[in-house]
Amino acid sequence: SSRFGHIRVKTDLQSQTNMASARLQITVESACNLYNSDGVLAGKSDPYVIVEVPGQEGMKLQTDVISNELNPVWNFTGEIEGFMDGDVLRFTVMDKDTFPKPDDFLGKAE
After folding, report:
1. d(Cα 106, Cα 49) in Å, to the nearest integer?
2. Which terminus of the chain, N or C, has fewer Cβ atoms within 10 Å?
3. Residue 58 to residues 61, 77, 89, 107: CA-CA distances in angstroms?
4. How many CA atoms lie within 13 A of 106 on its CB side?
5. pLDDT at residue 1 above 50?
6. What end-to-end distance do the CA atoms of the chain give, in Å?
7. What DSSP assignment string belongs to 18-84?
8. CA separation for the pair 21, 14 (Å, rounded)
9. Closest CA relative to residue 59, chosen from 76, 77, 82, 75
10. Cα separation of 107 and 110, whole Å?
11. CA-based nearest residue to 91, from 1, 9, 13, 21
């Protein structure tokens, strides 16, 4: 089975007065055709998204978990302060699992 799905996001960059860094508003709208990592008997994936600037502590957001859904709609909006020209924005889609089982990786985009 294919692991390819799609995630829909919007960004809005607002420069600060010093122009060195900016406030980045990010909206994670939805995803579709996500991989079902839970298997046939366990229901469907419980996806959430981590948005981060790799290597920058504190520049990270996370959506809520949408249970048992391969086409989730989050409509989550958050802001990352201090975003600079050249920074990479990473979106990682994960499947929430019950402790002690670790969450499953579903995909990422940068």
Report:
1. 10
2. N
3. 9, 17, 13, 22
4. 30
5. no
6. 23
7. TSS-EEEEEEEEEEES---TT-GGG----EEEEEE-TT-TT-EEEPPP-TT-SS-EEEEEEEEEEE-
8. 9
9. 82
10. 11
11. 9
pLDDT, tens digit, for every residue of 8-60?
A: 888 887 766 566 678 889 999 999 999 888 776 778 999 999 999 999 988 99
The encoded tokens of residue 57 equal: 């502590």
Do 5 and 107 form a contact (C-beta atoms < 8 A)?
A: yes
Cα angle 10, 65, 82; round to 5: 45
Residues sharing a CB contact under 8 Å with residue 44, sequence separation 6 or more, in sequence order = 36, 38, 68, 69, 70
Tokens of 21: 């860094």
